Structure formats: structure tokens, C-alpha cells
Amino acid sequence: MVRSSAFLSVVIVAACGVLLLGELAFLASHRAAILRVYLKPIGMFIGLVGLNLFGSILALSRRLFLRDTGRKLAHVEKQIRTGSSISEELTEQIAE
What we know:
By secondary structure, the protein is mainly alpha-helical. 82% of the residues lie in helices and 0% in strands. It folds into 2 domains: 1-65, no CATH class; 68-96, no CATH class. The longest helix is centred in the middle third of the chain and has 35 residues, at 31-65.
């Protein structure tokens, strides 16, 4: 879940960067001066946006994909303890 959230946030930040590079092509002639003065703030901004995006995607995915995990696990445990409708291998492993 963490890997997929990190991958998705990197893809989104990279896509936004490519979009911005296309829109700000008129600044290409001043690239050296801009990077000399503003490289650190630009890097910090991109890092913070990526970190916030990663946290948001992770929180959203946890909320969506782990919604009823406790109830589902309780149901599986109940079936294992009764020994019905779960494979015998799982019941034997729990009994050991």
C-alpha cells in the first residue's frame, strides 16, 4: 500500500512537472539565472507537495481498502474456530 501510494504520488508530481515545463517554455532562456537563485526553494516546494500528496493518497487508500478489515477477520476467525466452511489445513494449523 505504501509502495503504490509512493508510486502514484511520484507519477502525479512528474506529470505536473512535465505540464509546467511545457507551459513555461518561454523561461528557458533564463534557466541558469532562475536555477542559481531559486533551486533550493523549488526543490523544497516539490518535496513538500510530493510528501503531502503521498500522505493524502495513503490515507485515502487506507480508508477505502481497509474499511471493514476487523469485521472480516472476526468472521474468518469464527469460521476457523467452528471448523466449518474453511479448509481443514487452516483448522489444523490453528489447533497446533
